[in-house]
Design a protein that fits this description.
With 305 residues, the chain is an alpha+beta fold. It has one domain. The termini are far apart. The relative contact order is 0.16.
Length: 305
């Protein structure tokens, strides 16, 4: 495994499955995608057993990282609180693999079935994003692409990895979390955690349904503070009425791994809830019902919440 460093940003290159979550979903020719970006640019960062993340140097020069996320849903990973917030540390969005092209039957996780309409729309989107900006009629192509994508959303078709079968986005977020926990200021991964992480989740007004871009306000009147980002997100799941075992970005943060983000024992520590100590299982659902999930997560989260 090697780490490559640039002057203005830091770029990690991993070919080790123990250090990189995306390694686990590589196939002979993975097609990682970032919506509305040229797929060739993303391929330069993520291809078969070759994964790189560009990190802002200022983040690695800090001693403490304070996350201030909203308590809300996310169409690609279920919820977006502290762990998903680590995507804000990157210097180039091209390296944020959001999903893989196509349906699971072809090694992708962009949408849940092999619909020919979805496949054609995805190919058209790739074609439009891969064109030179000043090419004739490029503006018309972009308008057509956006019109088609909004139309498919209105009729309920899943697109751009916005469903519970997305097995890419949560892995990318946890990769970044591990880098920000263990990389020192020179860009080298160390065995010990290099900086403290504090998380203050704002749930005074939360967001449900189609987050993160179009959530519906949820009056929760809640604040969550934790010095363990994963533990804070786990409590957030409980408050939202979700089983953390159904939310990979939270569940997998407690898995045993090289450079661990959290440990299962972390959730055995007492939790202070309105001035009294409780266990995680005693935390009430803040809305007295589960948060309404994004469309692509409804059956997955509500059915066993």
């Amino acid at each position: 495994m090697s780490w490559h460093i640039f002057l203005s940003t830091m770029c990690w290159h991993s070919t080790n499955s123990l250090l990189n979550e995306l390694y686990a979903v590589d196939n002979s020719e993975p097609h990682f995608r970032v919506s509305d970006y040229d797929p060739r640019r993303t391929k330069a960062f993520h291809s078969f057993h070759h994964h790189r993340y560009v990190i802002n140097r200022e983040i690695l020069d800090t001693d403490v990282v304070i996350s201030l996320p909203k308590l809300k849903t996310h169409e690609k990973v279920g919820i977006t609180c502290g762990l998903k917030g680590f995507v804000g540390a990157v210097g180039h969005k091209d390296c944020l693999a959001h999903h893989r092209f196509g349906s699971p039957c072809v090694g992708g996780d962009e949408y849940p079935d092999g619909s020919r309409i979805s496949l054609l729309l995805s190919r058209f989107h790739d074609y439009v994003q891969g064109q030179e900006p000043k090419r004739p009629f490029q503006g018309v192509l972009h308008v057509a692409d956006q019109f088609l994508r909004r139309g498919t959303r209105l009729v309920g078709l899943v697109q751009a990895g916005a469903w519970s079968g997305n097995d890419t986005a949560w892995r990318m977020a946890l990769d970044l979390s591990r880098i920000l926990h263990y990389a020192d200021s020179s860009g080298r991964m160390q065995n010990a955690i290099q900086r403290r992480h504090l998380s203050l989740i704002d749930g005074v007004i939360g967001g449900e349904e189609n987050g993160p871009l179009s959530p519906r306000p949820a009056d929760c009147g809640t604040l969550i503070f934790s010095d363990n980002v994963a533990a804070g997100d786990s409590v957030a799941c409980r408050l939202m009425g979700y089983d953390i075992d159904r939310v990979p970005i939270v569940r997998e943060a407690f898995r045993k791994m090289r450079y661990p983000i959290a440990d299962s024992m972390d959730m055995q520590n007492p939790i202070c809830w309105n001035g009294r100590q409780v266990q995680e299982g005693d935390i009430p659902v803040v809305l007295h019902r589960p948060f309404l999930p994004p469309i692509g997560w409804r059956e997955h989260l509500i059915s066993k919440a």
